[in-house]
Amino acid sequence: MSERRRIRLLLADVDGTLVTQDKILTEAAKAVARELHHTGIVLAITSGRPPRGMSMLIEPLSLQGRHRRFHGGVYVNSDLSVIESHTLDPATAQQAVKLILDQGLDVWVYTEEEWLIRDPTAPHVARETGVR
């Protein structure tokens, strides 16, 4: 293959790649985003976070386009408007929640716009919400 192909898109994970364990967007990540933007390469992000959980990255990384996603289940624009959504039907979601709770575990449920928790004092909730 002698044809050279130009890179047009870079897809990056959020947690552990663009932000630290403490949820801090690094200056290095911002600098790389600026460099990509100046060279015409679109930076897109993917995460297990719901769209709202990625909103703090849009402006500092100058994110544009339609490539944001939430576990591949929700695709949103930079303004967080939903392009496409693939969700579980309610009966399947209820069955999954029951199976998790029956094992004595806690469960979090995400919708396109919300993070639903049962216990605000459960492990990891404070870290994920930024409340300490």
Describe the structure.
This protein is α/β, with parallel strands linked by helices. Helix content is 26%, strand content 20%. The strands form two sheets. Strands 1-2-3-4-5 form a five-stranded mixed beta sheet. A two-stranded antiparallel sheet has the order 6-7. The longest helix is centred in the C-terminal third of the chain and has 13 residues, at 90-102. The relative contact order is 0.12.
SSE arrangement:
Layout: E1 9-13, H1 27-38, E2 42-47, H2 55-58, E3 68-70, E4 74-76, E5 82-85, H3 90-102, E6 108-110, E7 115-117, H4 125-129
Parallel strand pairs: 1-2, 2-3
Antiparallel strand pairs: 3-4, 4-5, 6-7
Terminal Cα span? 54 Å
**Helix content estimate:** 25-40%
Order of helices and strands: EHEHEEEHEEH
User: What would the average pLDDT be, to the nearest integer?
Assistant: 84
How would a textbook summarize the main sheet? 5 strands, mixed
Placed side by side, the strands forming the largest sheet appear as 1-2-3-4-5
Overall, the morphology is globular
Tell me the number of strands. Answer: 7
Indicate the low-confidence ranges by residue numbers: none
Based on CA atoms alone, the radius of gyration comes out at: 17 Å
Q: What structural class do helix, strand and pairing data support?
A: alpha/beta
